[in-house]
Amino acid sequence: MMPQDEAVIGCTGKVLVGTRGSAGPGEILVRVRGGSETFLAWSEDPLPTGATVLVIESRGCREVGVIEWVDPLDALGGDTVGAD
């Protein structure tokens, strides 16, 4: 059994291969440890390719649990960072 990967919990990622809820995992790309890594991702509900997700648990062996994530700053109405 592989140890849990605590560093990835709380990171956000993009869905590369859509998850299928209880029918099976998808694949996500997560920015972690100064780079990008892929993980098998399990979610309660199916998530489409391109969705942004938040890693909520590590299942060991490069598998994680995720939920759909909407950045709260996006809800403020667009890109306000670095606007000239």
What does this structure look like?
- The chain is globular, with a radius of gyration of 14 Å.
- Helix content is 0%, strand content 40%.
- The N and C termini lie far apart (51 Å).
- It has no helices and 5 strands.
- 19% of the residues are buried.
- It has a 5-stranded mixed beta barrel with strand order 1-2-3-5-4.
- β2 (26-32) and β3 form a beta hairpin.
SSE map:
Elements lengths: L11 E6 L8 E7 L2 E8 L9 E7 L4 E6 L16
Parallel strand pairs: 3-5
Antiparallel strand pairs: 1-2, 1-4, 2-3, 4-5
Concise overview:
The protein is mainly β. It is built from no helices and five strands.
Which keywords apply here?
five-stranded mixed beta barrel; 40% strand; 84 residues; 5 strands; NA-bd_OB-fold; single chain; mainly beta
